[in-house]
């Protein structure tokens, strides 16, 4: 399968997010891929914009089955969330469970204004009533397929497909 | 009843025999060794091919818990355990409830033991009334009732004047005084050797000096009073060395080590294993090695089981709140064999430490199979391993540091006074 | 010997002692705790990790302070918390520790936080509970207080991130201190090259060097050029008697004052597990001074305990 170039998709995603940032929205990336994307979007935007990251480990719904992730990064929301419009950035939108966890965590920081979801790729397979308003690309995949966003040592992002055995 | 024990490897250290010999038993006695007496028609034959035929074991310290602690063990259960372990004679310490400080209690104990027709029981009387360390017991009367010596067990005896008088009085009659060397102040509240493991686990320690200070007191008084002393459960390297020197000076002193201490160290406590809560505490590797050296050069005369059956509840608590002690009668033989194997001690010499030597210390006619001797016999398989499990133990006490391990040395037949009292 | 704290896969099952825990697990706890520090600063100081779980704080030895920190930690993880102070009088009615624990398991407790006056009590309970139950040692006799040891190294790491380049002194009653033992194990496991203990001989265990520490009896020599000074609490009952002649003499020889602290490195930090005996082991000027990190220790203690609880609750393999 030919995967699109992640770097190209980022440009498209940044273009779509730009109007929201112009209206004063803050960026929140979901650790780790979404956080990379949020950083890149901030850079492409070129102006100062509030940027936060969420590590949703404490909010996962599969904790009782798989335990705590061994490497958790602290969540960091260095601005007041109260009434603030937020663009939540994720790399690959799949079941929607990650976004559910991220929104729960986000709300523990305060009551945000409008929350918009931006995903680099929507691969389908939703298990929750969650949709992204901004999508870089739609790539329908089978359940056993896994799509990951990778970052090399130069900071270049790329998509990689894994077939589960 | 006539019994022939044939084809076995007879090991009788006292008579210098280690060879395949048949043993002939009649009317409770050994009637012949080697060639059959004329007209000997056995009622039963024991085929001891590939097995060892030895005198029944003699244990210088086994708590039977009666009277007073029947919830821990009974005469019946423990004497049953004794013969299952090949032990046919044992000395029991006086720390029962009531304490063995009156002739009537001693006679009763001996009488009840005799009715059970299992191992022979030799009570050790209390050195002071109620083991309170204040007043002397009627040692002469107690000896007549059957006491083979007088002990203060692990009860406090801090008044050295009382100790000195007890030794003087006992030596007047030639009685042996049995003493556990442990300074009551230094050992107070302690539950483990005051060493690396206690430091790590935060357990209150009993320093080696608790033993050596008490030992110095005992040896000094023994020298002064001329009393014959048996030192119970030596556990430290320094203690062994003091005894070695005392023996070289010609002091009438004997000593034993507990089978557990010949094998285990403080490290076996691991993560607070209460099975290893023993008294005296398991000490360092160096101490254990010194005990082995002491056995090798006869500074230590015998190995004993220090059989102390403890009820399960008493072990079911954090380490420091548990009761010290372990069941031992059924492990005396396998642990002695293990020691012999690990130290390359010949089997005959090893068995002497649990047969003829303890019999000599107790002053009883046992621990050998001379013609005419009481037929107390242990027939065992030195190669057969068995797993130390609760179900495998006859003792009511199921606690031992060796629980779950496999040890070589399985008793197949035990005879007491010519009768088979155990068979497996 | 199997480490009773670990599952077959080498994951943390109970937290009973720092000793025997691999460095990777210590670091996992400390790293996870970093994430929990931020939680306390948010609008909602709670995460849903232990929702539906019941944590029982069983304190056979009273300690309001320690119990409170565990209670807050459990509540910030959304667990239900039951506090039980079992005084010795109800114990003497014949109810054993295991009876107490079994009762709570019958009420579907999931995790036990145990404080007991006997060394090995938490090990004992961990050995006897059902496989799905998790046990945290909140102090057993003189043996261990692992969460205190962890929060101490967490605090040190925050102020002195390069653990491989530190000189640390632990001052006071090491003999009776579970805190000292846990601190020593945590520091040596994390690779601190020089850990000193400073105390009179009556307050040091036999063979203490075997724990991997250097022994000092003179505080002035022991504090020289250290990066961290960790004070220990001196229990009241030990101040007079055969261990020490008096609290005054102890303060003179082993109390931390500004003058003595000046021997340490200028940026040295001062720690104390609390509660402090001001004027006995530590002078108020030091306790409240610029180099003191005693209050941050308390704050981080919550995060560390949250980390331990959530890691244990997540390791469901039995």
From TrEMBL, chain A:
NCBIfam families reported in the protein's UniProt record: PRK05205.1-1 (NF003545), PRK05205.1-5 (NF003549)
Record domain Phosphoribosyltransferase: where: 26-134
InterPro entries: PRTase-like, PRTase_dom, PyrR_bifunctional
Coiled-coil segments on the chain, per record: none
Organism, scientific name: Novimethylophilus kurashikiensis
EC code(s) of this entry: 2.4.2.9
Keyword terms, alphabetized: Glycosyltransferase, Transferase
Superkingdom of origin: Bacteria
Name of the protein this chain belongs to: Pyrimidine operon attenuation protein / uracil phosphoribosyltransferase
Xref: CDD domains: PRTases_typeI
EC class (word): transferase
Single GO MF annotation: uracil phosphoribosyltransferase activity
Automatic annotation (TrEMBL), chain B:
Pfam families (alphabetical): Amidohydro_3, DHOase
UniProt KW Transmembrane helix keyword: no
Domain Amidohydrolase intervals: 304-422
GO molecular function: allantoinase activity; dihydroorotase activity; metal ion binding
InterPro entries (alphabetical): Amidohydro_3, DHOase, DHOase/Allantoinase_Hydrolase, DHOase_cat, Metal-dep_hydrolase_composite, Metal_Hydrolase
The UniProt record lists the keyword NAD: no
EC number, as in UniProt: 3.5.2.3
Residue stretches making up the Dihydroorotase catalytic domain: 52-238
Keywords: Hydrolase, Pyrimidine biosynthesis, Zinc
Classification via NCBIfam families: PRK07627.1, pyrC_multi
Protein name, UniProt field: Dihydroorotase
TrEMBL record, chain C:
UniProt keyword RNA-binding present: no
InterPro entries: Asp/Orn_carbamoyltranf_P-bd, Asp/Orn_carbamoylTrfase, Asp/Orn_carbamoylTrfase_sf, Asp_carbamoyltransf, Asp_carbamoyltransf_Asp/Orn-bd
Catalytic activity, reaction form: carbamoyl phosphate + L-aspartate = N-carbamoyl-L-aspartate + phosphate + H(+)
Domain of life the protein comes from: Bacteria
All copies of domain Aspartate/ornithine carbamoyltransferase Asp/Orn-binding, residue ranges: 165-311
Entry's Gene Ontology BP terms: 'de novo' pyrimidine nucleobase biosynthetic process; 'de novo' UMP biosynthetic process; amino acid metabolic process
Pathway(s) the chain acts in: Pyrimidine metabolism; UMP biosynthesis via de novo pathway; (S)-dihydroorotate from bicarbonate: step 2/3
Binding site for carbamoyl phosphate: 65-66, 115, 145, 148, 274-275
Residues that, per the record, bind L-aspartate: 93, 178, 233
Biological role stated in the UniProt entry: Catalyzes the condensation of carbamoyl phosphate and aspartate to form carbamoyl aspartate and inorganic phosphate, the committed step in the de novo pyrimidine nucleotide biosynthesis pathway.
PANTHER family: ASPARTATE CARBAMOYLTRANSFERASE, ORNITHINE CARBAMOYLTRANSFERASE, MITOCHONDRIAL
Name listed for the protein in its UniProt record: Aspartate carbamoyltransferase
Species per Swiss-Prot/TrEMBL record: Novimethylophilus kurashikiensis
Gene: pyrB
